[in-house]
Amino acid sequence: MVKLWIKKDMIKTLIILIVFKASIFGVDFNTFLNEALVKSAYLQFSSIAKQQAKEEQSKILRYANPKLGFASSRFNPINSKSDNGYSVSVMQPIRLWDVSDDKKSLSDAKIANIVAQTFFIKADFIRNLSFLFIQYAKDRDLARLSKEEQTIAKKIFDISNERFKNGTISRGKMLQAKIAYEVVLTKNIVLSLQENRSYFELLKYSGLNEQIDIDTNHIFKVINKRDSANPNILTLKTEQKVSLASAELASNKIETFSITAEFEEEIDQDIYRVGISVPLPIFNSKNEERAVAKLESQKKELLVENEEKRVSLSKSYLKKERTLLKELQNRNIAMIVDEERLLSMFEEAYKIASVNLIELQDIKNRVIETKKSFIENKTALNKNAIEQNYLQGAYNE
To answer: What domains can you pick out in the chain, each with its CATH number?
Structure first.
């Protein structure tokens, strides 16, 4: 029976702590996020980049135009009259089949890289917006906690003032309670300014123009995404594929040859010609281009390996941190239950001079500090979930 009572008391305290005895009406975070994603200039830029990449693909794969040539000639034979002649020629560059495949691979790699960059931009936007949101939620909770502290400080001051009038405490003790109350009032203004600042930072980054009330009670959870990749690693891998595709394309010493067809009319004969011209890779065999592309690919491979190690260590750290943060959260909840019960007892005892002002102020400060610690811990848990989700690619899609 006692355990059941404690559990219910803890849950009640937790609910009161989260909402700070204030009703909240506003859009939830997911609705706010979806609206921000629609209006985000960053993601609109990514959409344009995708279209640009497709146009670049068409540009890479398109064939060269044929060349049409006309020539006019004047014949002046010694033993006959003069006459005119003309010639018409058509030249068409022909791309080698392997080169077409390599160009297609390169264009596909570039499009994949643009898509990866889009994932990165979106994931980075969601992470940063989420961080700004939890900062705003934290500042809002602290402002509400300060209001709660104000209520307690006002109650202590009222009791002190009443006891001063009754002559049970000195003016100095009464003034101490008054000053403590006025300090809380000043702190309220400072915290309200911080709450307002963080709200507009959130709004400014979201790209939304209108001011909206946002429900700050959202709790971030770790999303398990086994088939997703870290956006940084995904981008580096696609950049490496672009380098490899560039090196493969550069390995073709000859990319095109030209076929020429020509008709020429002379005085006494018609001439038909068909020819082929092939470039000779004597002075320019693209060795440097191929070497540069391969070196760039090796650089990207090293960056991928380093990023994979960093992400793996970060995931391990965040999982361990989350376990400890949850343990700390449970301890804070238990402490809040005991400290609020003790504060209530001390307030009643102070009325009849069973405890002094310093003892009452001390337990009041401990209650506020523990609740502040709970807010800090809740923010850290949310930040932990956001970072884990980002690292495992849960924000890519």
So the answer is: 2-39+97-134+203-251+286-391 (1.20.1600.10)
